[in-house]
Amino acid sequence: MKKTLKTVLGIVVGPFLLIIGTLLTYFVAKGYRFDFDNGQFEQTGVISVETKPRRTEITLDGTAIGKSPKAVSGINEGKHTVTLSRNGYQTWTM
Fold it and tell me: Are 58 and 69 a contacting pair, CB within 8 Å?
């Protein structure tokens, strides 16, 4: 009886977990993330910055995110402010 139950659970649960894992991977790859506060998936974006000269400081909405070149995923939809700065160069904001 125990062996039969394990077999049945394996046949049912295994493919179910595979399907759930595949769906989650698909949503993450398409730029979605799950918001646990409201219990929904929300679409996010990616910001990619490449500068000349390299190693320019990047600030997103007032928060330093690193130096170029840089790609950051999981950015919420909407308007954002990007600032690029480097010693000896004029600061650029958009």
Answer: no
- What tens digit of pLDDT does each residue of 29-80 get? 777 877 888 888 888 888 899 999 999 999 999 999 999 999 988 888 889 9
Structure tokens at 39: 């219990």
Q: In what order do the strands lie in the sheet with 40-49?
A: 32-35, 40-49, 70-76
Task: Please say whether the beta carbons of 51 and 68 come within 8 A.
Answer: yes
At which residue do the structure tokens 């904001």 appear? 93
pTM of the full structure? 0.61
**Of 23, 92, 21, nearest in space to 51 by CA:** 92
Distance in angstroms (rounded) separating the CA atoms of residues 51 and 71? 12
Which residues are registered as beta bridge partners of 34?
Answer: 41
DSSP state of 67: E
- For residue 2, report the phi and psi dihedrals to the nearest 5 degrees: -65, -40
